[in-house]
Amino acid sequence: MRILLIEDNDLLAQGLRLSLEKLDIQVDHVTTIKQAEAAVLNEALSAIVLDLGLPDGNGRSLLQQWRRRGIDIPTIVLTANTDFDTKLACLDIGADDYLAKPFDVRELVARVKAIVRRHHGMAENKLEVGSLSMDLNTHDVSFRGETIQLSRREFQLLLELAQSAGRVLTRGQLEQLTYGWDEVGSNSIEVHIHHLRKKTTTELIKTIRGIGYTLAEVE
């Protein structure tokens, strides 16, 4: 999972980034609306954590513009503003959740995972695509009723593909979602996909020549 953190408090942002990355959540941090706009257009993101008070404008207006333009990335508003009317206004214009500062990082993580699940139509912490089943809590994975053992990176890569089943993800998008800013080997994605195919079936992950990869609904 890769999230965009839009927060101008560098100390808070650094603490959040360290805490989230320990949980295998990749974090891109920006401090302004201008940077946020570029990140949303150019990066593959699972969710956004948005502060309202930014140096070059209001986060609420930014979210409203995104929703009007059809940008529907799941978004949590994170702010010191506890005014109830502000909360309602943010939810009305398209925020998926609202969390007031100060907060516990564990609650933020739980809320991020919840809005991502809802966005992908998952009622529980389980994701099923055809004969593939993934438990997001335990990281247990089964295919055609048989448990398969995956490395941390293999699980993350398969999860990103499963959450976008039927949609093609480019190699670059998969690298961003799986590794974030970590250094990536020149053929790391291909190696992981090769291992995943060996542990499931060659039909599960399809290569779309010249574009990327997609997960098929294999029974």
How would you describe this structure to a colleague?
There is one protein chain. This protein is an alpha/beta fold and 219 residues long. It has eight helices and 14 strands. It has helices at 10-21, 33-42, 59-68, 84-93, 105-119, 152-163, 171-179, 188-199; strands at residues 2-6, 26-30, 47-51, 53-54, 57-58, 75-79, 97-100, 126-129, 132-135, 141-143, 146-148, 169-170, 205-208, 212-215. A five-stranded parallel beta sheet has the order 2-1-3-6-7, with helices on both faces. It starts with a strand and ends with a strand.
Please describe the topology of this protein.
Elements: E1 2-6, H1 10-21, E2 26-30, H2 33-42, E3 47-51, E4 53-54, E5 57-58, H3 59-68, E6 75-79, H4 84-93, E7 97-100, H5 105-119, E8 126-129, E9 132-135, E10 141-143, E11 146-148, H6 152-163, E12 169-170, H7 171-179, H8 188-199, E13 205-208, E14 212-215
Parallel strand pairs: 1-2, 1-3, 3-6, 6-7
Antiparallel strand pairs: 4-5, 8-9, 9-10, 10-11, 12-14, 13-14
